[in-house]
Amino acid sequence: MNEQYRNFAQSLNPVENRLFEILKVEKTEDELKVFLGASEPRLFYKCVHFRGVTNFVTYLFDDEDTGELPQTFNSFDYIDASQNEETYDWILLGDESEWSFTAPYPEVSCKSVGEI
């Protein structure tokens, strides 16, 4: 496990921080913000902010799925996408949708509910 991943996993820490749901996915130009938290009680959330995003695609699992949020947060995985280990292929997995994209490691910050 490299240091970047260890820092990412420690700052996210989904179980301790009650990050059970994908609350919002916000894509603009080459940036992506993923808001993780819990609908109830909704005290705070984590924002995972990616810059330099390319190849952004959303998949729905079934014809009945709408992709509406919030969704259950299942996993956040990546694989190395470059020779220089600065860019990764990421997959954010919900219970109805999958978001895939290429980006460097993100910043993770904690926010209060009023800011979402």
Oligomer status: single chain
H-E order: HEEEEEEEE
Structural category: mainly beta
What share of residues are in beta strands? over 45%
Identify the notable features of this structure and list them briefly.
116 residues; mainly beta; 8-stranded antiparallel β-sheet; 9% helix; globular
Please outline the helices and strands:
Layout: H1 3-12, E1 21-28, E2 31-37, E3 44-51, E4 54-60, E5 71-80, E6 88-94, E7 97-103, E8 107-112
Antiparallel strand pairs: 1-2, 1-5, 2-3, 3-8, 4-7, 5-6, 6-7
Quick recap:
Helix content is 9%, strand content 52%. With 116 residues, it is mostly beta strands. The longest helix has 10 residues, at 3-12.
What does this structure look like?
The protein is mostly beta strands and 116 residues long. It is built from one helix and eight strands, in the order H-E-E-E-E-E-E-E-E. It has one helix spanning 3-12; strands at 21-28, 31-37, 44-51, 54-60, 71-80, 88-94, 97-103, 107-112. It has an eight-stranded antiparallel β-sheet, with helices on one face. A hairpin with a 2-residue loop joins strand 1 (21-28) and strand 2 (31-37). The chain is globular, with a radius of gyration of 14 Å. The N and C termini lie far apart (32 Å). The mean pLDDT is 85.
